[in-house]
Design a protein that fits this description.
- The complex is a heterodimer of chains A (about 220) and B (about 600).
- Chain A has about 220 residues and is of the alpha/beta class.
- Helix content of chain A is about 40%, strand content about 25%.
- Chain A contains eight helices and six strands; from the N terminus they run αβαββαβααβαβαα.
- In chain A, strands 2-3-1-4-5-6 form a six-stranded mixed β-sheet, sandwiched between helices.
- In chain A, strand 5, helix 6 and strand 6 form a beta-alpha-beta unit.
- The longest helix of chain A has 21 residues.
- Chain B starts with 8 loop residues before the first helix and ends in an 8-residue tail after the last strand.
- In chain B, the strands form six sheets. In chain B, strands 5-12-11-8-9 form a five-stranded mixed β-sheet.
- The longest helix of chain B has about 40 residues.
- With about 600 residues, chain B is an alpha+beta fold.
- In chain B, helix 1 packs antiparallel against helix 2 and helix 1 packs across helix 4.
- Chain B contains ten helices and 21 strands.
- The chains are: A alpha/beta (about 220), B alpha+beta (about 600).
- Chains A and B meet through helix 1, strand 2, helix 3, helix 7 and helix 8 of A and helix 1, helix 2, helix 3, helix 4 and strand 17 of B.
Chain lengths: ~220, ~600
């Protein structure tokens, strides 16, 4: 127990990335995250009370300029798990704004949970840190083929409409679980580079350069 | 903003547990960010043209090597507009590059998550409470409502809810809570009184700021709590005494010429004078000193440093919820005094004008100091709020100590102002010099565990950490014996363990605080993971015994011991997975500590 704490609370990592899983109650958010962090499956349904989170450290390899593998970084993932139940809604949505990326999940064996993806998307738009955050659409319980209600094509179309990746996963077998999370992580890592590089880099030194910098953003705006 | 009142008690507990875990993660993160920023500052210091010297255009701004006219002529960095030689560039291609400093700055912005906060701030401008996350905010609001801080079962000292903060929070509550709050206030303030009485018995004259000892300030400009300040007070006593490098700004018209000689007493000694007299009495000059019984409220300060002109700019913005300075007449005429504390001296006192009849004064006064950039890290800023009473009688309304070390003075815009909770004056604490050198023994059991696998779960290819022989060093702190006891002092002791490894890796662990035991017994394990035998061979383990003093600015170091020679590790490494008992004699003062 102590060792778990000491491992998880040391600061020996390069990035802290906060992701959040959301979706209807019972689609398997908790089991999905449990599979991802501990590589285990718990078939019991225990409803999440409000919020929870799990942690995992991974090594992220940045892609180099021409497809080559670049540097590797240690990433500490904080994976927020939210309650799908309506009565916790005000609590859970308040946590949206602190997450850098989202796993929007539905249950492949429940048409209703798929229909609600649209609602979750608007919840995200309203409550996430920005209007178009990084999201991955996840259809879970892919192993229950005989109970499937949502077709891959259908889901893929929706994901394309939103311009987000789509994965069919199974927390029971573990299939595609890692891939979905890693894809999201990748999106977030790319976005942070963009966010920092988009505006002209701020001056590292004060002095004369500062004045130049102050003027330039305005000029940019005028030009648009 | 939602609250937790809609949830059932059990649910609430569960959520709070999660929030507590989140808080742990956050404090580790804050510490990491602080380190990142310190490193950045170091890089900037090394690779920056000094503003005091003139450089010819034809030198690299980073390494200061001369640049040629035709070849290796350097190019202008798009980040800082300085001319940079080809060696001081980082980038993917010959065209897309940045100078080392700009690159480091960008890295920190990404790695510290600052990019995210900036993005988020566009949609959600940060509110007055200065909370970064929902979890933090929720936890704080809950602690405020529940009267009792939610503290995990055995909290390490750093996670103890700061008592002053709680006090301040309680006081700032809205009306409906006041009744029950008052009860609590009474109990807290009586507790404080008791505490100060027992401290007073010691009667060791010591400047309250010189005992502060901490070489690892965990200062974060974002979330300043009193405990942060406690931990982060820079070491003001150690080290060679440097010449007084700063002088009062010449063009400063705010200097306290009007008050002249009677202002010579610094805040700390003013308080001690008063404390020793135990009543309001003249201090030999015509001013009496008093402290309000309950220090409340906050002070908003903005600190900026202009390296160009070596000017430290302290903006005293405003205060809120101050205690009334003159309770009888219900009057309060507050002013703010700012003092720079150097290693050797405290001087350059500057004051704001007095605002009359308000407990929420707005000043927006800019106080300027001339200060060499090199001195920044060794300087702390002491700000105190005083009520200016009749007949020059001053009443202390609260104060804060802000170490400048760790503040990254990037540019004025990013370093926005912060609210600081005001604290009562700390008691005079005794310290270092008066103590004997032997300071008892620390009983520990140590074990080095070799692990064939990396210390955390790896189930996929992407998880692959560290050398495969990484192990774990477990240090079981069993207890401390033969501690020098002093009458009337009950010590609340805890042990802090630093494992310093090559490559300036540093792992810190703490035991919980044990209250009032002459021979404390913790049986608490400090665990250092991902340590290789090689690391350990050249590593240093430093164990420090601290007295946790909740109502003073700093915890007191009781003793420390180091293990650093190869021989001290040999047995441990030769027989891994076995517990080794050690009795480690501690030294009382800094002589045993590294600098």
């Amino acid at each position: 127990m102590f060792s778990a704490v000491s491992i998880m609370t040391d600061g020996d990592y390069d990035y802290l990335i906060k992701l959040l899983a959301l979706g209807d109650s019972g689609v398997g958010k908790t089991t999905f995250l449990y599979r991802y962090t501990d590589n285990k499956f718990n078939p019991k349904f225990i409803t999440t009370v409000g919020i929870d989170f799990r942690e995992k450290r991974v090594v992220y390899t940045a892609s180099g300029p021409n497809g080559t593998t670049g540097k590797t970084f240690k990433v500490h993932l904080q994976l927020w798990d939210t309650a799908g139940q309506e009565r916790f809604r005000s609590l859970t949505t308040a946590f949206f704004r602190d997450a850098m990326g989202f796993l929007l999940m539905f249950d492949l064996t429940s048409q209703q949970s798929f229909l609600n993806v649209r609602n979750w998307m608007s919840q995200l738009q309203a409550n996430a840190y920005c209007e178009n955050p990084d999201i991955v659409l996840v259809g879970n319980k892919a192993d229950l083929t005989d109970q499937r209600e949502v077709q891959e094509k259908q889901a893929k179309e929706l994901a394309d409409k939103y311009g987000i990746p789509y994965f069919e996963t199974s927390a029971a077998t573990g299939s595609e679980v890692d891939k979905a999370v890693i894809t999201l992580l990748d999106l977030v890592m790319k976005r942070m580079e963009q966010c920092v590089d988009k505006p002209p880099a701020e001056p590292a030194n004060g002095g004369g350069a500062t004045k130049l910098e102050d003027a330039s953003p305005d000029q940019k705006k005028c030009a648009c | 903003m939602m609250d937790l009142s809609l949830l059932q008690a059990l649910e609430r507990e569960k959520v709070l547990e999660v929030l507590q875990r989140d808080k742990l993660l956050r404090s580790a993160e804050e510490e990491r960010i602080r380190r990142l920023k310190m490193e950045l500052q170091e890089i900037r210091r090394k690779g920056a043209k000094s503003f005091s010297r003139q450089y010819s255009e034809r030198t690299c701004a980073r390494c200061q090597r001369p640049l040629g006219k035709f070849w290796n002529s350097g190019a202008v960095c798009r980040g800082c507009s300085h001319r940079i030689c080809s060696k001081c560039r980082v980038g993917v291609s010959t065209l897309d590059w940045k100078c080392t400093v700009c690159h480091a700055y960008r890295e920190v912005k990404i790695k510290s998550g600052e990019w995210f906060l900036e993005e988020k701030a566009k949609k959600y401008p940060p509110d007055a409470e200065n909370c970064e996350t929902t979890g933090e905010k929720l936890l704080m609001s809950y602690q405020r409502l529940s009267h009792i801080a939610v503290v995990p079962p055995t909290p390490p000292p750093s996670y103890d809810a700061p008592p002053f903060n709680r006090l301040a929070e309680l006081k700032s509550l809205k009306k409906p809570f006041t009744k029950s709050m008052e009860d609590l206030m009474v109990s807290i303030s009586s507790h404080m009184r008791r505490f100060s009485r027992s401290q007073e018995d010691v009667r060791v004259e010591q400047d309250l700021l010189t005992v502060v000892k901490n070489r690892r300030p965990s200062f974060s400009p974002k979330s300043l709590s009193d405990t942060d300040i406690n931990k982060s007070s820079p070491n003001l006593n150690e080290g060679p005494s440097l010449p007084n490098l700063f002088k009062k700004s010449k063009n400063d018209d705010q200097s306290c010429s009007s008050s002249g000689a009677d202002e010579e007493l610094s805040l700390g000694s003013e308080y001690l004078e008063w404390k020793r007299g135990c009543s309001i009495r003249s201090t030999g000059r015509d001013s009496g000193f008093l402290e309000v019984s309950n220090v409340t409220g906050e002070l908003e300060l903005a600190v900026a440093f202009d390296g160009d002109s070596s000017c430290l700019e302290v903006t005293v913005k405003r205060c809120r919820n101050l205690s009334c300075g003159d309770v009888k007449r219900k009057k309060c005429h507050p002013y703010v005094k700012v003092c720079l504390l150097l290693e050797t001296s405290r001087c350059s006192k500057l004051k704001t004008p007095v605002k009359r009849n308000t407990t929420d004064p707005v000043y927006n006064e800019v106080l300027n100091y001339q200060l060499e950039p090199a001195m920044l890290s060794r300087t702390a800023l002491e700000a105190s709020v005083w009520h200016s009473g009749t007949l020059k009688k001053k009443v202390f309304l609260g104060g804060v100590l802000v170490p400048l070390e760790g503040l990254v003075f990037q540019d004025r815009t990013t370093h926005c102002s912060s609210w600081y909770s005001l604290c009562p004056k700390p008691e005079c604490s005794e310290g270092g010099a008066a103590e004997p050198t032997a300071a008892g023994e620390l009983l520990v059991r140590m074990k080095f565990t070799c692990q064939s696998q990396p210390s955390w779960v790896c189930d996929t290819d992407e998880v692959n950490f560290g050398p495969s022989h990484a192990g774990q060093l477990a240090v079981l702190i069993t207890g401390a014996k033969n501690l020098p006891t002093k009458a009337n002092i009950s010590q609340n002791t805890y042990v802090k363990g630093y494992l310093l490894l090559s490559g300036s890796r540093e792992l810190i662990q703490k035991t919980p605080v044990l209250k009032k035991k002459p021979s404390p017994e913790w049986c608490h394990q400090l665990l250092y993971s991902s340590v290789t035998p090689y690391d350990l061979q050249f590593g240093t383990l430093e164990l420090e015994l601290w007295d946790h003093t909740p109502f003073s600015f700093s915890d007191r170091l009781l003793g420390c011991v180091r293990m650093e020679t190869e021989s001290s590790w040999r047995l441990l490494l030769q027989t891994p997975n076995v517990w080794h008992d050690r009795r480690l004699p501690m030294q009382a003062n800094a002589s045993g500590r590294r600098t």
